[in-house]
Amino acid sequence: MTKDEIVKEIRRRTKLFGAQFILSRKRQVEFEPGLKCSGFFTSVGDSGEPELVVSRCYNDDQFLGVLLHEYCHLTQWAENCVAWQNDDYWSSIVDVGKWIGTNKPCTPQVKAALDATRDLEADNERRTVRLIKELGAPVDLEDYIQKANSYIHFYNTISITNRWYDPDRVPYKTPEVTDLFRSDKIDDNFVKTPKRQLKALLTCADTRS
Fold first, then answer.
1. Domains of the chain, residue spans
2. If phi over 0 gives left and psi between -120 and 50 gives alpha, with beta otherwise, what is residue 206?
3. Which of 42, 46, 113, 199 is deepest in the core (most CB within 10 A)?
4. Is 23 helix (H, G, I), strand (E, B) or coil?
5. Is 1-79 a domain of CATH 3.30.60?
6. pLDDT tens string 110-159
7. Nearest Cα to Cα of residue 121 among 201, 57, 41, 176
8. DSSP assignment, residue 25?
9. What would the 3-class secondary structure string for the chain be?
10. Residue 92, Cβ neighbours under 10 Å: how many?
11. CA 109 to the chain's CA centroid
12. What is the rounded CA–CA span in Å between residue 189 and residue 157?
């Protein structure tokens, strides 16, 4: 499929799930006040309905990867899969976003919430890889998988550093970090990050006060 055909197909599928499909011409979209990203899915958007929102201001590989990734979050929600349930449960108990950057210790509850989010992303990346193959999307699959693995493993550093990644050193945009991860498949297990990869990912933490 071409990029336009894929956009049309994802729009069609999104509507079948009763969600809104929004393509923004802005370079980034706002998930929450002050929190911008390239795309997101939310089960309760501004309209009160589920929304799939993606910025179209990217080259083909980046745009399609983001679009298909966020659409797969919609499928997790629609299926109410175990990973979605676990993440939803821990998010209702711990607001990790408010914990990050506070220098407060990582409690068992925070660690469980971080692990649940990591596992949600791992499940989602596996879905995304399957969807890329299904649609024959013009995405460099090996590159996508390698970046996805680095992104998921980064979650294992947050309980150590209490920091998100530095916007100038995003793990999946930093070749010397990304190249340490496998590109043939999404890892089977993300519970423990190998020492070499962990050391590299730790250099991506945002140390700005």
1. 1-79, 80-209
2. beta
3. 113
4. strand
5. no
6. 999 999 999 999 999 999 999 999 999 999 999 999 999 999 999 999 99
7. 41
8. -
9. CCHHHHHHHHHHHHHHCCCEEEEECCCCEEEECCEEECEEEECCCCCCCCEEEEECCCCHHHHHHHHHHHHHHHHHHHHCCHHHHHHHHHHHHCCHHHHCCCCCCCCHHHHHHHHHHHHHHHHHHHHHHHHHHHHCCCCCHHHHHHHHHHHHHHHHHHHHHCCCECCCCCHHHCHHHHCCCCCCCCCCCCCCCCHHHHHHHHCCECCCC
10. 9
11. 21
12. 15
> Poorest-confidence range of 24-28, 75-79, 129-133?
24-28
| Token pair belonging to 128 | 């995304």
Cβ atoms of 75 and 45 within 8 Å: the answer is no
Rounded Cα–Cα distance for residues 113 and 92 (Å):
9
> What is the radius of gyration, based on Cα positions, of the chain?
17
Length of the chain: 209
- The token pair that represents 141 in the structure block: 């699959």
| Angle subtended at Cα 21 by Cα 34 and Cα 113, rounded to the nearest 5 degrees | 50
Q: Which tokens hold the place of 155?
A: 């979650």
86, 112 contact by CB (below 8 A) = no
